[in-house]
From TrEMBL:
Keyword Nucleus (UniProt): no
EC number: 4.2.1.93
Binding site for (6S)-NADPHX: G129, N183, V184, A185, E186, L187, G188, R189, D277
Catalysed reactions listed for this entry: (6S)-NADHX + ATP = ADP + phosphate + NADH + H(+); (6S)-NADPHX + ATP = ADP + phosphate + NADPH + H(+)
Compositional bias segments (type: Low complexity): 240-253
Superkingdom per UniProt: Eukaryota
Protein name from the UniProt record: ATP-dependent (S)-NAD(P)H-hydrate dehydratase
Native organism: Gonium pectorale (Green alga)
Described function: Catalyzes the dehydration of the S-form of NAD(P)HX at the expense of ATP, which is converted to ADP. Together with NAD(P)HX epimerase, which catalyzes the epimerization of the S- and R-forms, the enzyme allows the repair of both epimers of NAD(P)HX, a damaged form of NAD(P)H that is a result of enzymatic or heat-dependent hydration.
Family annotation (Gene3D superfamilies): 3.40.1190.20
PROSITE patterns: YJEF_C_2, YJEF_C_3
InterPro entries listed in its UniProt record: Carbohydrate_kinase_pred_CS (IPR017953), CARKD (IPR000631), Ribokinase-like (IPR029056)
Amino acid sequence: MATAAGGEGDAEAAALARFRSMVPQLGGGNYKGSHGKVAVVGGCAEFTGAPFFAAMSALRVGADMAYVICTPSAAVPIKSYSPELMVLPYLPEGPPGEEQPAVQAEVDAAVTRILPWLGRASALLVGPGLGSDPSACAAAAGLLCVARRRGLPAVVDGSALTHIVAKDASLVCGYRSCVLTPNVAELGRIAGAVGLPLPGRMSDEWLQHAPSVAAAFGGPLLLAKGEVDLVCGPGPNPDPSSGSGSASGAPSDSAPPRPLLRCSVPGSLRRCGGQGDVLAGTVAAFLGWAAKQRPLPHEDGGGAGGGGGGGPPGLDTAALAACAYAGCAVMRGAAAAAFAAGERSMVAGDIIPHLYPTFKRVAGCR
């Protein structure tokens, strides 16, 4: 069942074909930003590497620009990692070492300050290095609400799954242009938020419940990371080459939900920290390209209010699935190349130089 990306069959081959149709062409008529601008919301005093890995990965697979919207305490370290990133220290944060309740006026002011930057983005990534500060998480949740109302594609990863989605699943339930990227532990947390507590102790067996969790959310695509990555949608499997996803937000009554796609492309035998951030940034860049093919309405205003409604129609399930599958294939292939060179010494930063050569193979580019 081999494909150019080492996929598993017809569905995976169709997803790759759909993804390849989204890849923008290089040419002299392009302008800065025409191949996507990714906004990464995350980064705090404790976690500065995660947003860097995510934003740089988006750039290295072909996005033109990447912003990192972080807390003031994280800004200087992140700025020092690379001159390629625009670093905006606008997320509010409490005193060091304390977790004080969020002050709504400060949260609203931060969201208002960030909105012009969000309006320039082609995709939003919330979570890498966000941490647990109540003010920062409240502002990130507010930005996610605005993105949802505007139909902006979003990836929700890491800290945002634990400290935002697991506490209020309604923020993303029915958000049809959104991809959730949980590892096994995070899958257990968000499953409980939609009334599907997973049985027993945490293990890879929890991944078999990912399709049911995705169906319960009723809109976001769920990319469950494991030995085999599972791409799960809100309803019956669409044809990834058809250009239209399922209109149903519920699984079939006659059969349990199942993954739309499985990615078993060989990856690294070492599981170092930061690989999920590389994947999240890669998928966000690809979602930006999908959105360019189907312009989405942007509305003015917004704040830190609740999600409310599904927003504009957004991207179809097949487009989201194609981006998620391609992101997994690129990330896994790049990680395998990094592991071949570094083996036990491999770290997440070693993966990034291998992203573009792997992307070219997956995307069928010259």
